[in-house]
From TrEMBL:
Alphabetical list of Pfam families matching this protein: UPF0102 (PF02021)
Superkingdom of origin organism: Bacteria
Protein name (Swiss-Prot/TrEMBL): YraN family protein
The species this protein was found in: Gymnodinialimonas phycosphaerae
UniProt GO molecular function: nucleic acid binding
Family named by the database record: Belongs to the UPF0102 family.
InterPro entries hit by this protein: Restrct_endonuc-II-like (IPR011335), tRNA_endonuc-like_dom_sf (IPR011856), UPF0102_YraN-like (IPR003509)
Amino acid sequence: MRVYMDHGHRLVARRWRGPAGEIDLVMEKDGEVVFVEVKASRTHAQAAAALSQRQIGRLLRSAEHCLGSFPKGLATPMRFDVALIDGQGQFDVIVNALAA
């Protein structure tokens, strides 16, 4: 979360819960909402591999519900990041990780 705040994002929610599930972090900067899935494992590669298709679907459905609380709703600019944490506490962010 500190990485985002250092770059001017504000925390909207931590562990946001909705009917489809939980979003680890919801951040916002300049009208863009950033949904962050945090994955921890022994290595960054293992953490990244832990993000399953099922979790991605849950994340997308949860984000859809979350956006209902924003003035522009589903028209709100957004992206999905994945924050990877390895066994030594090293932090890496995959920005816009779900882009096609």
